[in-house]
Design a protein that fits this description.
Helices cover 40% and strands 17% of the residues. With 346 residues, it is α/β, with parallel strands linked by helices. It starts with a strand and ends in a 16-residue tail after the last helix. 49% of the residues are buried. The structure holds UDP-4-deoxy-4-formamido-beta-L-arabinopyranose. UDP-4-deoxy-4-formamido-beta-L-arabinopyranose binds next to helix 7 and strand 8.
């Protein structure tokens, strides 16, 4: 298939490009490089034999989308482009609605103009909110507690409405749990611009000596060791879920919602121990109070994705930590070329 990938230079997008090309799909990237660098695409090209074109542009720009649609003529769109920081979404709610909801609307409108009828959408397990039961299945109530989560849920509703109005259309909504890890080549990985919000890149920066210690946000949760439990999923498994979703969208119409996780959960302390084993170094930690908005535990029931799309996660916790460490140690400053590893002042 010919696949337009919005946000293709980002962390999950870049890994997905590699898996799509490995399966013979031709890809075209549209990215505004607001939270990514074009250097990613050079590395993706070096790792793939497939066909890839790219455009610098914003998903809210209808004229740009029309240009890409008429030139590339995609059979399907994988729509990653969006803003993803939970804390920031409370400070800039209009930006989050504009990019995440407005961007999705603009992509669908351009698809309508071009007659493109298949879309895969990056959603998040955060749409569920406080668990009523665990593991979450896709029928769990959706009550997101952040603006970020609300924008993802609003975009899901738009996609569902679009498929109802267009019986020949397919939208596959993937609710990601906690993506971690890096490509086995150690050439692409997660490269946060500022202080990492997420656990794994923060631990990796402590291991490489850029930060003194990990702050554990609360060890008084009702969990076995008191720290938060999450369903961490290797980014390559997640990337492959998009390939499976495209195959599924090619043979089904309507909207499908799928959890993308492993079905297992690990605590913050489990992640620190596993990372320490992977890098052979101690990871300094200090315990602070809970982070506002965090919940004690999250875990996916990923059986629907297995039954309907034939997708299942195969990477282990060791794969997640070892690949993160390989990426972090080979690229101490991410995609920046210089090799200065001096400490970042918080
Ligand atoms: C994991 C665990 C923290 C950092 C968020 C978004 C979600 C998705 C993924 C999407 C929790 C603890 C973390 C630190 C810590 N984003 N932690 N110290 O919060 O599950 O999910 O990212 O696009 O929508 O909500 O992920 O990696 O931030 O936290 O103790 O410095 O690690 O409290 O228990 P989270 P996370």
């Amino acid at each position: 298939m010919r696949v337009l990938v919005t946000g293709g230079a980002g962390y999950i997008g870049s890994h997905t490009l590699i898996e799509l090309m490995a399966q013979g799909h031709a890809v075209c990237v549209l990215d505004n490089y607001k939270n990514a660098t074009p250097a990613v695409l050079q590395r993706v090209r070096a790792l793939s034999n497939g066909t890839m074109t790219d455009y610098a542009g914003d998903v809210r720009d209808g004229a740009m989308l029309d240009k890409v649609m008429t030139t590339f003529k995609p059979d399907a769109v994988v729509h990653f482009a969006g803003l993803k920081a939970v804390g920031e979404s409370a400070e800039k709610p209009l930006d989050y609605y504009d990019v995440n909801v407005g961007g999705t609307l603009a992509v669908l409108q351009a698809m309508d103009r071009a007659g493109c009828r298949r879309i895969i959408f990056s959603s998040s397990a955060t749409v569920y909110g406080e668990p009523v039961y665990l593991p979450y299945d896709e029928d769990h109530p959706t009550r997101p507690t952040s603006v970020y989560g609300q924008t993802k849920l609003a975009a899901e509703h738009i996609l569902t409405g679009w498929t109802k109005a267009n019986p020949d259309a397919a939208a596959v909504i993937l609710r990601y749990f906690n993506p971690v890890g890096a490509h086995h080549s150690a050439r692409i990985g997660e490269d946060p611009r500022d202080t990492p919000n997420n656990l794994m890149p923060f631990i990796a920066q402590v291991a490489i000596g850029k930060r003194d210690a990990l702050t554990i946000f609360g060890d008084d949760y009702d969990t076995p060791d008191g720290t938060g439990l999450r369903d961490y999923i290797h980014v390559v498994d997640l990337a492959r879920a998009h390939v499976a979703a495209l195959d599924y969208a090619a043979r089904t119409n309507g909207a499908g919602i799928f959890n993308i996780g492993t079905g297992q959960s690990y605590s913050v302390r489990d992640m620190v121990s596993a990372f320490s084993r992977a890098c052979g170094r101690d990871i300094a930690v200090k315990v602070a109070s809970r982070r506002a908005g965090d919940i004690a535990a999250m875990q996916a029931d990923a059986s629907r994705a297995r039954h309907a799309m034939g997708w299942t996660a195969t990477h282990t916790l060791e794969d997640m930590t070892a690949s993160t460490w390989a990426w972090q140690s080979a690229n101490p400053n991410g995609y920046q070329t210089e090799t200065d590893t001096s400490k970042i002042t918080p």
